[in-house]
Design brief:
The structure is a single chain. The chain is α+β, with helices and mostly antiparallel strands. The chain contains 14 helices and 12 strands. Helix 13 links the parallel strand 9 and strand 10. Helix 5 crosses helix 8 and helix 9 crosses helix 13. The radius of gyration is 23 Å and the shape is globular. The chain binds zinc ion.
Length: 405
Amino acid sequence: MRSRWDDAATKNLDGLDLLVYASRLVGAETSLVVWGGGNTSLKLAERDHRGREVRVLRVKGSGSDLKSIETKHFPGVRMDDILALLERQQMGDQEMVAYLAHALQDPASPRPSIETLLHGFLPADAVIHTHADAIVSLTNNDRAAEVLREIYGSDVTALPYRRPGFLISREVAVTFERHPEAKAILLEKHGTICWGATVKDAYLSTVELISRAEEAIAHRGKGRVRFGGAAVPPLTPEERRRVASSVAPALRGLVGRDRRVVLAFDDAPDVLDFACSSEAALLSTIGPATPDHTIYTKRLPCFVPVDDPRDPAGVKAAIQASVERFVVAYTEYFTAHNTAGAALSDPYPRVITVAGLGMFTTGKDRRTAGDTSRSRPGTPSTWSTGRSSCTSWPRPRRRRSCRDA
Ligand code: ZN
């Protein structure tokens, strides 16, 4: 990963403005965070409501995206209130959210990130937390700690997966104290935590950490056959576009019966590697090992086996059969786990992988369709990123039914 930091651009920036600058650099890197994911922070001296100087954590607010973040999206949380929580052993999410609301510099500011304490418990001034693909790739397995040790030695220390909240933040604080030599803390199946005395230090530390992971992944992948090797030869780029354009309206009609849906198509080399592989069908039944991704992708993708990817009519029929099977299976899955009695509003797949052709992803708009593409589920996440070949089809004005599609 290359550093995007530009000293000339930051010459007149300091404090929160510098944090905004760095946050946007992190957000611009789609292999680090999906929309809304990851968070950044900076500890500053500010005045509280009584004019006293206090130390304040400026941390990303819930529901904002790093790529386009502004200063107003960083609520200030008083550090003395945060540090008082280190005495606790446990704290529920609701209690934590209510507590932090009392610790805000401005009660009207956005709610601070659910990962606020993870930032606040670390003594460094600047902290950057990402959900980097490279780290997820290295740790979505049962020997994550060993893999990380081989790559980083004692430069980083890692924690097993635990969902975001109070306990993981506490573990991060304890780990930091026990390993003063560590330059970063990695959260298995989750991401990175890097810090520094300045925002630039934390950013460059993140870049270095990810670069080492990427090199290790490239090195390990050399000469290895992925996903069991190719089972279906991919079509040429022109043929892929021809068939994809021909079947896309029908697919959009199938998955957009009840709501507006934007469809994106991705036939990047790594996507094709998977879509054409002999293990694609099997791997598509496993589910993502990264919980973050299910927000966009659902638990499983819909894999479409096809006899002849050059034949649009055959591909269309295969897609219809696979989507219908998916809907039945998803409805059963939803019903079995629906203890809250919620209504099933969307039984359709978000990711549709077609052998020989590529991958369609869906979303309520172009942005979410693209993020679904970035969260490719059901597969070992050893793919590179950088979607250069994503095309999207907005829904036509006329509402399509399954039949007329
Ligand atoms: Zn996180």
